[in-house]
Design goal:
Radius of gyration of chain B: 13 Å
Number of helices of chain B: 0
Distance between the termini of chain B: 37 Å
Radius of gyration of chain A: 13 Å
Order of helices and strands of chain A: EEEEEEEEEEE
Strand content of chain B: over 45%
Structural class of chain A: mainly beta
Helix content of chain A: under 10%
Order of helices and strands of chain B: EEEEEEEEEEE
Low-confidence stretches of chain B: none
Largest sheet of chain A: 6 strands, mixed
Mean pLDDT of chain B: 94
Helix content of chain B: under 10%
Mean pLDDT of chain A: 91
Shape of chain B: globular
Largest interface: A-B, 25 and 26 residues
Strand content of chain A: over 45%
Largest sheet of chain B: 7 strands, mixed
Oligomer: heterodimer
Number of strands of chain A: 11
Number of helices of chain A: 0
Chain lengths: 112, 113
């Protein structure tokens, strides 16, 4: 059974700082990874996905993947209080893309 | 483009009853996946439907079932409800473009008393 591990936090950062969220996975065969943001009481929102080793940038967000170390991270630059949420890392289960196994999520708190 | 819709948004049921939840995917999306989210277990995959066929199933008892209609709308059913079934039930649609992104609906909050 594939596992996705995240530090539950909370991770507290000051406004304007870089927030670094980390995720490790157990299955070396994993090819793709997804980052979701979930505000309290809301459903998860897809914010980034990455397939290749290296970095992928989208606005203030950068996803980093290191397949050799089985490690994926999400950096949020210029963190804002509105970024305060739980961030979920996910990878597909065997057999296809449309079955995701999620980490427990990391709570991020950005304070003014 | 309208997002994923789920009905009802909130539901209160009694142990032993059954419940049916509905999900309409993003227009043009043919894959619908269902997840259960609880504070203790997090987000767990229930099953996925594509073109009216269940392609994959998670590790849940047979009381959990689903189906998909020709217009890609999907329903999931839970029979003989237990207290532990209280959860947020989320459906996610995917366009099947091979990149695997899934987009979640707002969820149905089920409370079993």
């Amino acid at each position: 059974q594939k596992e996705v591990e995240q530090n539950s936090g909370p991770l507290s950062v000051p406004e304007g700082a870089i927030a670094s969220l980390n995720c490790t996975y157990s299955d070396r065969g994993s090819q793709s990874f997804f980052w979701y943001r979930q505000y309290s009481g809301k459903s998860p929102e897809l914010i980034m996905f990455i397939y290749s080793n290296g970095d992928k940038e989208d606005g203030r967000f950068t996803a980093q993947l290191n397949k050799a170390s089985q490690y994926v991270s999400l950096l949020i630059r210029d963190s804002q209080p509105s970024d305060s949420a739980t961030y979920l890392c996910a990878a597909p289960l065997w057999g296809g893309y449309n079955k995701l196994i999620f980490g427990a999520g990391t709570r991020l708190a950005v304070h003014p | 483009k309208a997002g994923v819709t789920q009905t009802p948004r909130y539901l209160i049921k009694t142990r032993g009853q059954q419940v049916t939840l509905s999900c309409s995917p993003i227009s043009g999306h043919r894959s619908v996946s269902w997840y259960q989210q609880t504070p203790g277990q997090g987000l767990q995959f229930l099953f996925e439907y594509f073109s009216e066929t269940q392609r994959n199933k998670g590790n849940f008892p047979g009381r959990f079932s689903g189906r998909q209609f020709s217009n890609s709308r999907s329903e999931m059913n839970v029979s003989t409800l237990e207290l532990g079934d209280s959860a947020l039930y989320l459906c996610a649609s995917s366009g099947g473009q091979g990149t695997g992104e899934q987009y979640f609906g707002p969820g149905t909050r089920l409370t079993v008393t």
